[in-house]
Amino acid sequence: MASPLAIHIGKLDTDILVALADFICGDDKNRFPIYRSSFYLTSFFQNLNIDVTHDGSTRKVWVLAVLKQLQPSDIEKVILRLADPREYQGAGDNFKQAVQSMNEILIMENLAVGLDNSRPFIKRAEPLKFDEAEFLSKQFDDDIKIQELGFDPVTTSYLQRRVDEAQFCPRDKVPLGTIFLLGSTLEGILLAVALKDKAKYMTSKTAPKDRAGSVKKIDDWTLAELIDVAHEVDDLKLDVKKFSHVLRDFRNYIHPYHQMSHSFNPDQHTVDICWQVFKAAFDQLKAKQK
């Protein structure tokens, strides 16, 4: 009998699928416990009754293309298998790492993996469960000067106006507007940082690739990809990376039906969290310019 907490998923954000593709391929051994070569990628899907065969193309690009074609019910099977102890020959360290990494991905959709008699299921999760109190207690300067990041004058001017507008928004009256401004401005800042140091970002092992296996133009990177690469090149620390993904997730509620489907109703506390994420990211990026 399924757990009473178990739910079925709907269509997931593309950034979630990108993260799942990384998980399935397993290139990052610090996050994902199993590396799957071409043969094992095919086996993984076919064992789930998903009839696909790796065609020899770039593994992550191929896996992502497969995931994008699947129905939510099949995506659900993929997620559950990746968090199933049978995939790791028991509930040892590899299994624990898999569940932790999966929940870090699913938190972006307010989802999590639970266990019922060693069988995984998908459930609702409260966002920001990881060290929230400690993170929110950190002190950062409210006086944000974009010029300290060393961008060109035009970019600096546009980004500074967005920061100023967000600061003028009453936190208890314009929560959605503030969150959307902070998320989009963080994306603009990370894009400007990446463009300023192209070589470092383009050669990162987590730099996103296109279908041909070539690194995508930085201008085409998503916010999730910018966050991940900024962490990989040590411009953002792990805590800010995690919370930046939460801000990214909140920003995606700009789509009304997405907001309704998740019953997302931000308040002043939500805005305070987002401001803390933004200021922490700015502080760390500024420190790298010195």
Structure commentary:
This protein has helices spanning 14-25, 38-46, 59-69, 72-82, 93-106, 132-137, 153-168, 175-196, 198-202, 223-232, 238-251, 256-261, 268-288; strands at residues 111-116, 119-124. The chain has 290 residues and is mostly helical. The protein has 2 domains: 14-124, no CATH class; 132-288. It has a two-stranded antiparallel sheet with strand order 1-2. A hairpin with a 2-residue loop joins β1 (111-116) and β2 (119-124). α10 packs antiparallel against α11. It is globular. The model has no long low-confidence stretch (mean pLDDT 88).
Layout: helices, strands, pairs:
Elements: H1 14-25, H2 38-46, H3 59-69, H4 72-82, H5 93-106, E1 111-116, E2 119-124, H6 132-137, H7 153-168, H8 175-196, H9 198-202, H10 223-232, H11 238-251, H12 256-261, H13 268-288
**Count of domains:** 2
| N- to C-terminal distance | 58 Å
N-to-C SSE series? HHHHHEEHHHHHHHH
How would you classify the helix and strand content by structural class?
mainly alpha
Q: State Rg.
A: 20 Å
Q: Would you count the extended β strands for me?
A: 2
pLDDT < 50 stretches = none
Q: Any idea what the shape is?
A: globular
What portion of residues belong to β-strands?
under 5%
Separate helix tally: 13
For the residues shown, what is the average pLDDT? 88
The main sheet comes to:
2 strands, antiparallel
Kindly report the spatial arrangement of strands forming the biggest sheet: 1-2
Helix content: 40-55%
